[in-house]
Amino acid sequence: MKLDSKIPEGPLAEKWTKHKFNLKLVNPANKRKYDVIVVGTGLAGASAAASLAELGYNVKAFCFQDSPRRAHSIAAQGGINAAKNYQNDGDSVYRLFYDTIKGGDYRARESNVHRLAEVSVNIIDQCVAQGVPFAREYGGLLANRSFGGAQVSRTFYARGQTGQQLLLGAYSALNRQIANGKVKMYTRTEMLDVVLVDGKARGIITRDLVTGKLESHSGHAVLLCTGGYGNVFFLSTNAKGSNVTASWRAHKKGALFGNPCYTQIHPTCIPVSGDHQSKLTLMSESLRNDGRVWVPKVAKPGLTAKEAKNIPEADRDYFLERKYPSFGNLVPRDVASRNAKMMCDEGRGVGKTGLAVFLDFTDAIKRDGKKAVEAKYGNLFDMYAQITGDNPYEGPMMIYPAVHYTMGGLWVDYNLMTTVPGLYALGEANFSDHGANRLGASALMQGLADGYFVIPYTIGDYLAGISQEKVSTDRPEFKEAMDKVNNTINTILNIKGKRTVDELHRELGLIMWNYCGMSRTDAGLREAKGKIQQLKKEFWSNVAVLGSNNELNQELEKAMRVADFIELGELMVDDALNRTESCGGHFREESQTPDGEALRNDDDFSYVAAWEFKGENQPEVLHKEELNYEFIKRTQRSYK
Amino acid sequence: MNLLNGLKEATNNMKITLKVWRQKNNATKGGFKVYPIEHVSTDMSFLEMLDVLNNDLVRKGEDAVAFDHDCREGICGMCSLYINGKPHGPQQTTTCQLHMRSFKDGDTITVEPWRAKAFPVIRDLVVDRTAFDRIQQAGGYVSINTGGVPDANEIPIPKKIADEAFDAAVCIGCGACVAACKNASAMLFVSAKVSQLALLPQGKPERKERAEKMVAQMDAEGFGACTNTGACEAECPKGISLTNIARLNREYLSASLTSYEVEVKGGD
Amino acid sequence: MNWFTKLLSSTLGRKVLMALTGLFLILFLVVHLIGNLQLLHSDQGQAFNIYARFMTTNPLIKTVSYVNYAIILVHIVWALLLTIHNRKSRGPEGYAVTNGSSAWTSRNMGILGTLILIFLVIHLKGFWAEMHWGGISTVTYDNEVYKDLYTVVDKAYTMEWYVAIYVVSMIALAFHLWHGFISAFQTLGLNHSKYNGLIRFVGRAFAIIVPALFALIPIWMYLDK
């Protein structure tokens, strides 16, 4: 298989404009003859569904939650980048492009990232017009802040809940189209397979989560806007329902999976408190602006936040400040996360689990007063107290890294189409724009860029080239796919084993976290592969799922998702094994500089690893899309 | 914040008795079942405690208790539960952010689904809140298409107005207001969206039509009338203010008296 | 449905009707109170009896009084309609445990209103019906004959049970007003951070002072024997 990224020729800044002109258009009167299926209603899905319906296409949208408004984009806190340069501080489309490429450790496509930076400005206009209440200055104009170590203030925000406001904006646009009859919305409905007819994606199989009824839906194109797969780690900052099932089933139907091992680990999360933990909560990384990260110089197992103030200054190791004097506590996410892990691996972690480091505000409170600290971080401190039961004004916070975002995803070309014609992937579900590491405030930007401003153009090019004829869901392809899904469900229900879905999921998460998390070794990954294969056997022979298919059965839903996570986990390990370099969120211990920093290998790994499914229990086949850097010179990141 | 003063020593050995509403589906009658649960940690969230219960039930061969949840960080609005006579339990937060340290060793906790005609029970503690979506579809938007909009800074909005609109816009659509209200009224929910868009210049052109259509849909769904008890505001995990309800009243009344006739579906 | 019936049949429109009729009745209370205060003149009821005749014969006042009856009726009927609607809105199953976070008065306007209604029946039968159709004795001031309602009232207020009912009813009224006054403004959307404090203060003061004065009169007259 030859991967054709369809990157347009020409100067970087003109690629998208030229490409838009060269794309075929669908006549306005003909748009109503095409049906588009959109799976997922987060930023990418809701914006795509609304925009396509506005153009005149008939859209069917699906989400597993009870309302499209609940998609996990809603939980994004910080903000959304846009190259508006409202602050007159030297920002530009090119600078946003450059920062994103560099932040991604030179593992993203230049053309895609430049397009993302270009349309970023339109996103803000669009959201404001919808009534999204962004933060404003007293003069009535939009406020910005600098985010994630950026040198310019280009982040637009809505208090600490930017994702919520942006999603509600997209949701409102979606609602308008539902009311207009242009979008038919299916809630509490989970996609379980893609249906291919003559090699093209022409429909999906869904399960109504309330009645268990399996249904076929046909369309001219299928858009997967189903988010990331961080929950393969069981504990992550993702919502409990976030899953890889749609992407994974598409992968098994021929869509290549790009860079599955690229995972972002966020340094400032609330540590795990016990075996009962069901998910992790992220706190804004702005905390690192004033908090100092430390552990005791000599291991003190079980050290609590209350006892921390008894540790004299001389016995504390402010390890980020020590190792990275110029960036200090503000090193990028991957560096901060990795170093916290190293401290805990050395046994110097704190708290009852030993898997935490201190984030100390004592100096900030001394310097600026408690009031000032409260004004800046009050809501975060409250959230911390609510979850941990510790008062962060009196002792230091404890933090530990947690899985937050997955840069990998379905491989897509410049038009966002996967390797299956007519099957698209948008937002976090695709692999495209963040390379090996995502910059803060860029996820929201990408989701909305794909949905509002990319897919409405690129889908026309595909649809204009295929027949308007609808395919019937009575075709054997649909029946076959539905039978397969039905079999899977019955198989799971008939195992009647001893182990709960959560138990098995936890076990998978632990394997992934220990061997395919913040740092990876060849030996560890090989061990993980064996363990995952073992776990897969255990799942298919000993999972306990009660009840039937014909009812709301949350255990069954979880079981099907976990089954897919297990398979994905193995592919992530394969991908991590293959990539023997360190880059972005991927740290291979074999590839480091003499002083222990990540060492990228551009000569051997300047490519997108796209994996092809070859059949159950068959090794997947690697395809490489070379990344050509025509416009940017690559450098090694350094934060010393 | 008061919760900082009330922090208790952590333990992982509380005994709790749960009285949980079980109902197979909407067509069958439900009832309470009692489940003792041991070794509850104060650090657990309420939903994690239910996870523990469910895993125990499955191991014993009993059906797990169905409940809605997703983000577990207090923003998606999917979790619900009427806990000891209050939506989202004793604290003014979402159930997913409620921790077991809010309870005492030996407590009996009664867990019920949201109760409203417009929120029929689907199973156990899961209810159908699509009525909220239909109300939003009736007019909770600004009618603009993607593209062709003015530059974001062409519409200056006074900070105070933007902030007030934001305060209304933080609604997570969980339905606690309906659950708390003795009339199962959805006024706080509807008023939050109407307020947000009535305050902002972007929402002005459709302001009257929006208020009329959303109220008509709210009535058609079978929610009760507001009697200004203020229970919704007191229980709203996002602190949405009753001021919004007053604004909705004003918007609706003035729209009824001055709007051009519009096609409105619904109504009693 | 035209726009007006649509407005009145919506839950918001019904509430507006409750608020408007409520506010009218609040005004009525003031007028009624002014009349009642005539009972406290030490003139053997002359001022009160003149006032009573004026109120029952002046054509303008008579018209207003019919409007008043209608408004009381609307207030009651719409309250019933709303209560039935609100009861149904809870759905087939209620809560097993409730732990209300709202004021008791606000949740029990129906009960308070019913108490006031019962009082109204007793009150109308005792005085208003007497005045209109009862065989009431007469008095003469300045060669004009007046119905002596004062004596009817004066006699009624010698009975402890009557005074007690009156006082209890005024307490019910106070609670009803405690919520109703402010609530009416909220329902009409008359809400602004600059005036909310004033509305709240006046509402609370009104809810205490007006029923207290009403209740004071029978107590005074009872004690003044």
UniProtKB/TrEMBL annotation, chain A:
**Catalysed reaction per UniProt?**
a quinone + succinate = fumarate + a quinol
Which Enzyme Commission number(s) are on file for it? 1.3.5.1
A GO biological process held by the record: anaerobic respiration
Matching entries from InterPro entries are given as:
FAD-dep_OxRdtase_2_FAD-bd, FAD/NAD-bd_sf, Fum_R/Succ_DH_flav-like_C_sf, Fum_Rdtase/Succ_DH_flav-like_C, SdhA/FrdA/AprA, Succ_DH/Fum_Rdt_flav_su, Succ_DH/fumarate_Rdtase_cat_sf
Family annotation (PANTHER family)? SUCCINATE DEHYDROGENASE 2 FLAVOPROTEIN SUBUNIT, SUCCINATE DEHYDROGENASE FLAVOPROTEIN SUBUNIT
Similarity comment: family membership: Belongs to the FAD-dependent oxidoreductase 2 family. FRD/SDH subfamily.
**The protein's name in its UniProt record:** succinate dehydrogenase
UniProtKB/TrEMBL annotation, chain C:
* Annotated transmembrane regions: 66-84, 109-128, 161-181, 201-223
**Coiled-coil ranges per the record?**
none
Return the InterPro entries for the record: Cytochrome_b-558, SQR/QFR_C/D
Does the keyword Transcription belong to this entry? no
Entries under CDD domains matching the protein: SQR_TypeB_2_TM
Q: What does the UniProt keyword field contain?
A: Membrane, Transmembrane, Transmembrane helix
GO CC terms: membrane
Could you confirm whether the keyword Chaperone appears in this record? no
Q: What is this protein called?
A: Succinate dehydrogenase
Biological source species:
Pseudochryseolinea flava
The lineage is: Bacteria, Pseudomonadati, Bacteroidota, Cytophagia, Cytophagales
